[in-house]
Amino acid sequence: xxxxxxxxxxxxxxxxxxxxxxxxxxxxxxxxxxxxxxxxxxxxxxxxxxxxxxxxxxxxxxxxxxxxxxxxxxxxxxxxxxxxxxxxxxxxxxxxxxxxxxxxxxxxxxxxxxxxxxxxxxxxxxxxxxxxxxxxxxxxxxxxxxxxxxxxxxxxxxxxxxxxxxxxxxxxxxxxxxxxxxxxxxxxxxxxxxxxxxxxxxxxxxxxxxxxxxxxxxxxxxxxxxxxxxxxxxxxxxxxxxxxxxxxxxxxxxxxxxxxxxxxxxxxxxxxxxxxxxxx
Length: 280
Prior knowledge:
Layout: E1 2-15, E2 18-31, E3 35-36, E4 38-39, H1 46-59, E5 64-68, H2 74-79, E6 83-86, H3 107-133, H4 139-155, H5 175-188, H6 194-210, H7 214-217, E7 229-233, H8 240-261, E8 264-269, E9 278-279
Parallel strand pairs: 4-8, 5-7, 5-8, 6-7
Antiparallel strand pairs: 1-2, 3-9
């Protein structure tokens, strides 16, 4: 089943006395759940094709998330009353709590137990998030991280039997709460055991998220899932920290936004960059 289908897209415009062909008889098809990528050199028509598709889907009531690395969609965002997420600033300018549980299950999974399915998937997501954030993290630390996250959820009354449809963004813990769980467990460990060693290594991994990366990943979600059009403004990854923020945001946080909002997500970029998914 195609969720996006465009046939014979053509776009021309005048540049002085010359006619520029931006698109020439382009047809595109994206199936539901498919991961694709739109790539090409500057001026090849990526943005033109996306804008034509975006306008149609916005008018039809679809919700859309787009990563805009070259600030090409600012005017379109204003025109359609969209929201902008500035990942270079974070905080009130756009923050997604990675620990907020997203309900993403089909009918069969719901019948088997929504709480178990959703929480299990969230724990897997968080482990993948940590592994990408810090590729050097070891498996024993990841396992401990999963246990600590589950303990933190329990402190907030969240377990495998919870009805997540009744929770709001403010009901979920943040990485500061995870860090508090770690510090509490370390204080209770009076002897230098293998478990304490693992916990100390985990503390070193989580601490930066609650300090220098606090405004990007540590806090409650500020993006409204009712937004029709969300544009994520990418940043120039001139520093290693901002490169990690940008990549983690694109690979993990934006798909989470797309799931929360039941959106179509577009990512446009140059072919020299690693292609990111178009979530449909």
